[in-house]
Amino acid sequence: MTTIYHNPRCSKSRQCLAILEEHKEDLNIVKYLDTPFTKEQLEQVIDLLKIKPIDLIRKNEAIWKEKFRNKDLSDTDLIAAMCEYPKLIERPIVIKKNKAIIGRPPEKVINIL
Prior knowledge:
Layout: E1 2-6, H1 11-22, E2 27-31, H2 39-49, H3 62-67, H4 75-84, E3 93-96, E4 99-102
Parallel strand pairs: 1-2
Antiparallel strand pairs: 1-3, 3-4
């Protein structure tokens, strides 16, 4: 089973989903704006991605600029911000078994298939 944390309004997320469908992946599609991450889920995803929480944040989002930019935030603070404002999370995220990738560009997803 391959899980994609998907935002249907995002062109990159739609392109990544199309690649997964072309490869006939058995998909679990999670619309993370409708079903936000829990703190524990997001921590697990960040661990699988092998990145820091700041690397998962969309820094051009208005919410980031208005509420968080130029503040000294801990990893815990960043994870809490992403849970409260899931629009801050870079997308799409694809997980297969114990591997995860941010699908930007969408073709990167092929690396974990």
